[in-house]
Records
---
Amino acid sequence: MEIKEKCKVPYCCNTRDYGKNGQLMDYCHHHKLLNLIVTSATWRKPHLFYKAEIIFNNAHELTCNYDIWGDGTKCGDSKLKYLSVPDIDKKWIWGMFDVDHIKPATEKDIKKPFVGVVSTWNEAAPCNIALMRQAQSVKKGVQDADGTPREFCTITVTDGIAMGHQGMKSSLVSREVIADSTELTVRGHSYDALVGLAGCDKSLPGLMMAMCRLNVPSVFMYGGSILPGRYKGNDVTVVDVFEAVGKYAAGASTEDDLKDLEQVACPSAGACGGQFTANTMACVSEVMGLALPYSSGAPAPYEDRDKYAYESGKQIMDLIEKNIRPRDIVTRKSLENAATIVAATGGSTNAGLHLPAIAHECGIKFSLDDVVEIFKRTPYIADLKPGGQYVAKDVYEAGGVPIIIKTLFEGGFIHGDCMTVTGK
């Protein structure tokens, strides 16, 4: 039977739609999202219904009497104007509403540069759980430097968990998904710049690839390493657990020993503590110039990370003003510097996959053969796990990535004339 009742959106001539349970909704199929916004237990904010009406109906003369501030000021009396879709541009978008503080952005905020703040936060592993915290410091830095931050997240796959089963087939492709999804978000919302925070093997190169592909002013920041565990007087990492599993399988260790090690090997947030792919690519981000000096060093739980996050947020505004973009920074020379620090620190050979991919986004021919040639001529100067005895926290306490860069430069292995996000 034809439904005669009309959709409740003003000026809409469509009939109402049915919900999943067969109930008659208040709105037509084009506008039924409005009904979900109004009725959902997690979005009981009438002013959101008012916003949605404007977007979906393209109306000019709606009013909303919701007391948005609690002081008698009505939503309809606020600075939220009734703009039609062609007039929206950056004056009126969903991001105009700051849900954290429940207040509309001012006209002044809308005129500032919009900075995407992307993190690969999730709860899949310790690598990523501190990223959202640091993203808040980035946003504060952007705001204090007169920008308008817009936070979003993308996926990550953690190799330490994906290894040894079919999940590993998801690992490398996740790098492409991270790069593609970040690109889509920045392009789709016309963001002026990007700050990216990542904490795991494929998420670091994925975000750096996105920055180079988009070529908007960008700052990368590593989320930080995990603190080392302590077992029988020694620093241990997750790789020690992997090796202990093999020892147990070979009858060289007891199950109790394995469990005891497992309980202490990963004591905090942060990426795997040795010079594995995450810490390797973190070093790359600094020497290649996409990250602030020293920002890769502090372990994830340290408050220093929030300081560097804040400074990264401020620095992006300087890059916007100076119009310094990733392809001004990532050059043949900076890529050679990146390969050099990988070899010098005994870093992950996965860099042989990631550096050519980053180069490709910049239109630079830099192949695995080029990486190998640099590896051959570079001295190994860092005694880091898994081949050595120290972890990322020790590098931080010794002076961070800059002390390695300084040593390599003094030895004639690093190009010293490359641009970085510092503008120098």
Note: The longest helix spans residues 304-322.
---
Amino acid sequence: MSAHLETVRSVFKKWVFIDDDDVIDLVLASVVANRFKDEPIWIFIVAPPANLKTEILLSLAGLPETHLLSKLTPKTLLSGFGKPEHSLLIRLQKEGKSVLLMKDFTTILEMEESSRKEIFAQLREVADGHMTYSTGGAAGDVHWKGHMGLLAGVTDVIDHQRLVKNSLGSRFLYYRLGIIDQKQAAIAAENNVGKREAWRGELSAAVKKFFSEFVLPSSIRDISVPPEILEKIISFAMFTARCRTDVDRDGYQRIVEILPTPEGPSRLARQFSVLARSIAAVRGKREAGEEELGIIRKLAFGTISKKRVSVISALYARASEETLSTREIAVEINLPVNTTKELLEDLSLLEIIHRQIEDYGGEDGSAKDATRAYLWRLDFKFREEVKKLNVWPDPVAGGNHRGDHALAAAGEGRQAVQEEIPF
């Protein structure tokens, strides 16, 4: 590991309680990745309030290519008012700035819907590298073309924002900070009372010193990726692309409006490849290996809805042909049955899981009082793809039984937990 990187980590640990060194390496690597001007890297750092998002992002604010953005409106990025250089994107381009920092993206999520839609449409264009603002007046159109990365802090509320998924879903990666030791975090915070300027200044200085001594490789390709690591990166891209694909539903009746077509893996493969190489560079390496792949793994699973990951994990833990009912899965992942049912339907439409229907007649064998049970298992082909990722242990023959204590709470026997849907 680079001695300069170890210094940055040490300064962070001096002032704040942080038990995830990977997030430090990732944000530094994101700056490096955007210096290559290859694939724009946009990352949400997802964590509850007061969980270090702000401090991590503020430590980057003193770098020459970053711009800290506290507020964003539909007129911020490009505007037809005044001269073109009054538009933020054009001004930042002239100043050589290529990474936007947003401490709290949640404030945008709380804006009224029309403004949010307009901002998200603009951000989508920025991520794609070109944007045009049509004024309709004598001044003509305002154009921007370039490269802009983005790092933003956000809370778990992002998982409930359908508009973000539909508008920006394929542009952002999500890195989820784990739950920290609350007592240790509080002790560290109390020790810093009266020292805010000192510790924020020291964090910023450590990051600036790191980059002042960092030598950027002449090409992203100067950092190699062994074939076996590249194969895993591609597998993670394919897995994430399919699992994060949104299923469009009516906002009131929750009816599926459009059959989903899974997202392609190309953008994710490029992002993961650039980041793996950039993380290696930050760590003083010239080859990305298993350690760098560990952060890619966190990004891959963090970018997928936590609820979906819970379902996939629960079904992967069973033998390949073993099925679970909707209610059994709901108990195991600790979610309401109706919520679980929608999750399962979505994953079935994406061909991630397979639905099996079993009908049970009434006591006299007639249709009266008959019930229908929906039983679920992982799709066989998808299970093989998950197995390649090597993130969960293979279930033992006959079933892993990881959640048997939860299933027992749902009732004795499969028929006791069936969904009662009359014919």
Note: The mean pLDDT is 84.
---
Amino acid sequence: MSWLGSLFKKKEKVEIKTIDLDISELAEWYKTVSKNEITTIKQKIKSHLEEIEVKKKNTKEKLDNLEKEELKNKNIPVREIQIMQGNKDAYIKITNQFIESLNTNIELSYEPCKDFCDNFKLGLKNLRESTKRSYSVLMHFFENEASKVTKEINTLINVISEIEDQIDGNLKPILEVEDKISQLNKEIRTQFKQGDELEGDKTNLNKAKKSLEKIDKELEQLLKSEEFKNVERLKNKKDNILNELKQNDYAIINIFSPLETPLKKLERVSIDGNALIEKYATNPTAALEEDSELKIMQILTKLSNAINTEQIDVRDKKKEKALEAIEKVDKSQLQSYKTRREQLKQSQLAYERTLKNSRIGKDIDECEYRKEHLRDKIKRLEDKTATTEKKLEAKDIENIKNSITEDAEHLFNTKIKIKDDEADN
């Protein structure tokens, strides 16, 4: 019954150790516990690489034997012998090149070993494709020796599989945990940095909002001040002046608008006074302002004569309208418009000087400028803090911790509890 008892005997449980680690201790701890395992894996890989060197030697010996092997049947046509020899030489040459390409002098780390295995498999694929025909011929003439070469190559394949098991099944999981620990530390450093930035940005945001409230109060006081009311009254007076100036200019323009084209034609045929004529045609308000002697009256007389004597071409209704407009021009009325325009311009300049020298206006402009600057700053800080908060929420630190814990338990039979360094502070 002893065999029956052994059948139902419970499997021996593997002891799982438990350890608490601060995040700052994690990398060094893992480096220590994985060191022996990595050393063992590398020793196994090294042993496999040495085995490959032996199998390379064995394969070359088998190729030498194949090369020396002679035909058992001497009664084969010369042509067939030539075909056989050509394929034999090609097969031995290509296979030797493949064996020589297996350089086992490599670093015993993941990437070089992975590259070695990948290159072997690629080389093996090329070997099979390039020797398919020649191998088929050799199997017809030298089946025994050719099979021995193939058998040795198959043993190489088995050793390569053993190396892949070590690097992908044993070494890679250990290195992946190292990467996870590096990622964890990087994420935590980034989190601390972003947390500090977020705290600073929130402080600056509160300061900016308080400054904006303060400026709003300052602006409110300025707008309630007597000085501001006086400035507003001056602005209203200035606006009235500008409206009257606009109406005055409009009246001047109405006088000369029917004469625009005739004046331009007169300017082209006149000997003197051309600049003033051209200005009345294009900008009558400015022309009247600088025409201190009202020479326009002489110009209009000249224009009337030119139209009547057909010195300039003004036809039909346009001719009648032009002559009618000239007839309506009154010198005293023009003088009145001119004088009023000068008075209004002087009043406008006086109000503008007073407003420009007013301190209240500058203070209000400064407040508005500061408000705009602070609004922009608040908007930028609000956007930045919102973005940083989303980044912090998206941190996958706990998942990385859990993954490291699971991997450590699986690889080293050790259950670790990862604590934040700040937790003890």
Note: Confidence is low (pLDDT under 50) at residues 1-11.
